[in-house]
Design a protein that fits this description.
Distance between the termini: 12 Å
Order of helices and strands: HHHHHH
Number of strands: 0
Shape: elongated
Number of domains: 1
Largest sheet: none
Number of helices: 6
Strand content: under 5%
Length: 128
């Protein structure tokens, strides 16, 4: 797959993830936090915190989609930046999962890993 196709895929994945965070904000909150943290307004706060995250994912997706027309050299720089950014997301998710009571969903970790790997692979792939 070429860089334009990967940028398209990553942009769409981000937008779909953002929509999922918005629609499933309450469910994600219940699944991610222990019951005692959801009491006393915790569920409302956790759900509300997913909404800006969803908007951020959608905005990132739109920005990624807007880079599809770049020259290959510049597209590879964008892909490298996406790979690095998602590596930080992955480290953060794993740290939260293993060092706090938060249960980061494994499908989210998987998607973050996939995005990072695809971005790095495409950024470093030789072009013909």
């Amino acid at each position: 797959m070429n860089s334009k196709n990967i940028l398209t895929l990553l942009g769409v994945l981000n937008i779909l993830q953002g929509i999922g965070f918005f629609i499933g904000a309450e469910t994600l909150t219940v699944q991610s936090f222990p019951a005692e943290l959801l009491e006393g307004g915790g569920l409302v706060v956790g759900t509300a915190m997913h909404w800006p995250l969803s908007v951020a994912c959608i905005v990132i997706g739109i920005v990624i989609l807007s880079t599809r027309g770049l020259e290959i050299k510049d597209a590879k720089k964008v892909l490298l930046s996406i790979g690095i950014a998602y590596l930080f997301f992955l480290i953060n998710g794993l740290l939260q999962h293993f060092t706090t009571p938060v249960n980061v969903p494994m499908p989210a970790i998987g998607l973050i890993t996939l995005i990072s790997i695809l971005a790095f692979y495409t950024a470093f792939k030789k072009t013909t």
